[in-house]
Specification:
It is built from twelve helices and twelve strands. It is α/β, with parallel strands linked by helices. The strands form two sheets. It has a six-stranded mixed beta sheet, with helices on one face. Strands 5-4-3-2-11-12 form a six-stranded mixed beta sheet, covered by helices on one side.
Length: about 350
Amino acid sequence: MPAYKYTDAQKAEALKLYQQLGVPAKDVEKRTGVKANTVGILAYLNRKESKGVLKESNYPIFDSPITLEGDAVVYPDIETPYHHAEFVNRVTDLAQAWQIEQAIFVGDLVHFDCFSGWEAGWIAQQQGGITESAERKLMDKITSMRISANNKNELMTTVVEIGGIDEELGLTPELNAVRKTLKVFEEVYKVNAWVMGNHEGRVLRTFNLPVVPDELLKWLAEKKDKWLIAPYYYAILETEKGTYRLSHPKNTAKYAHVKGADKYDCHFAMGHSHYWTKGRSTSGKHWAMQIGHCVDEQRLAYVAQRDSMRDMHVLGALIIKDGYPYLLSPETDWERMKKLWAK
């Protein structure tokens, strides 16, 4: 419809929303009936006639985080390849028993030690061993040999006792290990949502340039269609019992989770702090949680080699099922929990 077909009141309201309040043209159309392209024309003509009117910024508005609906498992701070495999496997096993098809990694999915700003740590002396590929080749050979079962078992046991040799430190070995971890999640879940964390930020600091998050998937993911990634340090999960904001926030203070639930007026679950606690917002309307971590801190030199007087960190993860949050820890009765929703 041409601009002259709209009433003066419609055009005035459209210009007010678009130019003064910064409402996007498509939303102006919904509210006033003035077509989005016509809104742009009206604004152009108005700017020619007006003085002292700022043009709308060309810079993007950051209001499109990853948003999912329904049930999901939330893994905080896995920091692969320094992940706590036993705990993560228990969480994944439970999620599969409950038919959870979506995983949200709420920051620090990858440790990126090779980009770390921490000083070098002491390492343990190598005790010999063989590489993973060599072990696999030996095992395949033993399996194919025409010898007795007892002799095969003895040979296999010997190979296992020799043990593996650690790969050298550096970018390539670390990223190779990360790819193996991500592949496991690709096999289990239909959707994997990758939220940014401070460890992903190490990549930005190293290159000192803006990086599109999709680049991480190009480096590390085999099945890129199984992943969602965006330049946000939080994701949104819509459930039948309200909205969950799943965050890797800057603030890790003692009551940050409570403040988050109050500030954003929704359920709030956060990683990053490595603390584990479940409560309610100040208003009592929303869940407020710090959901622990999934990294094996005994593998982190800067954590394990020196004593710290900070509060104890706790392994943890979260499953949101039918809108209710099940906060998990090493103390979880895994077999009993499976029976709650297993079919």
